[in-house]
# Entry
Amino acid sequence: METQKTISPDYTSYPAALAPFVRENSLVVRSPGRINLIGEHTDYNDGFVLPAAIDKAAYFAITPTEGDFIKLHSADFHEDYKTTIHELRKSEKNSWPNYLLGVADQFKKACVTLSGFEGTITGEIPLGAGLSSSAAVECAIAFALNELLQTGFSKLQLVKMAQRAENDFVGVRCGIMDQFASMFGLRDHVIRLDCRSLDYEYEPFRMEGIRMVLLDSGVKHSLASSEYNVRRQQCEEGVSIIQKKYAEVQSLRDVTQTMLDELLLPVVPLIYRRCKYVVEENLRLLAACEDLKKGDMKSFGNKMFDTHHGLSRDYEVSCSELDFLVDAVQNNPSVLGSRMMGGGFGGCTINIVNEGAVEELIQSVGEMYFQSFRKELKAYVVKIEDGTSLVRHIG
Ligand code: ADP
Ligand code: MG
# Structure
């Protein structure tokens, strides 16, 4: 018989909002959002990224039930969604169930026999701010189903299933970084991920005395997706010109500054600038990892400013609000590094800030931002935390 008794909640492992939905036979998974320190627009060029999981997460409680029903609940939106394991179709009315159903669909496509369950999702990651709340939700249910059904998929397999759920079911073309960072995150470390081979290495990132501050421009330009496609094409065009002479070149990952100077600069100056940014960014990221190994946060932070300037001037995916936010902290001795984060044309800047200066910084930049743009500046202060984990086993 199915038990409906609610267990006494452990608030240290999941948020109180989830407690009414956790039963004796529920398991609960925590899966965090992510930041990316350096390595922007490098993923689709077979390059490197340097993400980390954060201390804001999505939580998914799953309870097995008799029969074929899937009953989903959003504790944040106060909405329900009901279907069966045989009818995993995209909901046109609400978007949130799709991030969950898309992953269930991946299990089915991997020939797993699903059985009925109730699932509740809640989270503390701001939605749509560029901290990848969507990947967190996908990784949470992927991990939960893997545990519940004892399917034995590896973390990397779960990451790929979560990414495919977002690509194929939700219909958002995203790379693998977000899901990878959510699943593989490690406290006080960033992940150097090679987007070509998916090899990865943890680099130490000491959070002692510092905080990551995300300053949310509140801007969402419609340009973002069209310009993203244009940048991808420009990178491909650069590669195809270089390939005519250097046949071994597969992507910008294989391109050197000398090749750029020789083959792109004289004939296609705009493509040259785009490609130069990507080539520099990969080198910058590798050098930044050396900074981390030495514990040289100042040098690391300076590279974040360099990334921003490359994105703004050469790759041209910034906007006046993001440039303003980086300029506002550039000469502040309490800010080690700052840059726009994500695809561009809006979203957040990521800042490494001395812990004692965080509040004042948010206050003063917020005032300046309001004066210039008449927009309230939202800020999120985060730490680097562990990736996806089970926070409640079946009792
Ligand atoms: P981002 O991933 O940058 O936060 P997206 O637009 O990719 O932004 O994903 C946000 C969507 O993910 C939300 O609109 C919602 O459908 C889903 N989502 C994220 N967090 C939650 C949550 N806590 N509860 C329900 N749905 C969520
Ligand atoms: Mg997302």
Remarks:
- Residues 1-11 have pLDDT under 50 and may be disordered.
- Residues 269-294 form the longest helix (26 residues).
- The chain has two domains: 16-204+385-392, 210-382.
